Amino acid sequence: MDIRVLQYFLAVVQEGTVSKAARVMGTTQPNLSRQLNTLEEELDCKLFDRGSRKITLTEEGIFLYRRAKEIVQLARRTESDLDQIRGKASGIVHIGGIETPAIKALGKPMASLYKKYPQIQYDFFSGRIKEITNRLNHGLLDFGIVTAPYHLSNYDYLQLPKKDTFGFLVHRDCPLAGLACVCPSDLKNYPLWVFGQPPESQILSDWLGKDIKNLNVISSFGHILTPAQLVEEGIGIAFAAKGLVNTGPNSSLCFRPLEPQIDIPVYLIWKKHQILTRAAEFFLKEVRRILPQ
């Protein structure tokens, strides 16, 4: 598969029609159509259901769309990394992480590195642990930020200084707001917003001593903003780490830790035996120099 053809394919999906995609990619509609037909012949499958108005993807097309985005992104990054090797200390450090207050620890190393090498930039991806490790394993990230419990045997890692303290984000009018901490028996039938999927949700399961399927779970989430806004409207309570949402005196939300308390280590990880770009090497060196080991 040619990278350029994959870019054509992505453009068609994103623009919705071949004619619009051709204009965006600076080619003719007949040429783009020929390239797509050749791609379907090469893969021996139909990628599009070609309707009268808008192109829609087949199941095979959806699969290729997801993979093509990763392939094109990796190709672009490879070109950028080669430019770094040939040039000065510049480029982009790609970091993926869960939502965690512990990421603040990277602020000092990043600020120090900026003073030395202002050409180095950062690209942050926020997601769940499985999304982060998948991108890390496919070379789309230099580093990941994850919590335990997670198997770290395939990675080199540094533990960040602060741990995540888990608990529940509740509305101040909720009866749980009157408690100093929350025990498993306090949950009753409260509708729950649950942070992530395994392994993140394993934290809650271990604390409860049972599977979260036995609870009244509204939904899982990867980003706290949406459930926090809905908890503000009185819709359930959210299981999350302390410090991600404003719970000050002027907020309608408050945080209640678990009893027994759960403090989870947070790690900066990268693939074992990975050859880091120059920018990533400088970043890691600065992290090791500044953060306590």
Automatic annotation (TrEMBL):
Q: Which family does it belong to?
A: Belongs to the LysR transcriptional regulatory family.
- Species of provenance: Brotonthovivens ammoniilytica
Q: What is this protein called?
A: LysR family transcriptional regulator
Alphabetized Pfam families for the sequence: HTH_1, LysR_substrate
Per its UniProt record, what SUPFAM superfamilies does this chain match?
Answer: Periplasmic binding protein-like II, Winged helix' DNA-binding domain
Sorted alphabetically, which keywords does the UniProt record give? DNA-binding, Transcription, Transcription regulation
- InterPro entries recorded: HTH-type_LysR_regulators, LysR_HTH_N, LysR_subst-bd, WH-like_DNA-bd_sf, WH_DNA-bd_sf
Where is the HTH lysR-type domain positioned along the sequence?
1-58
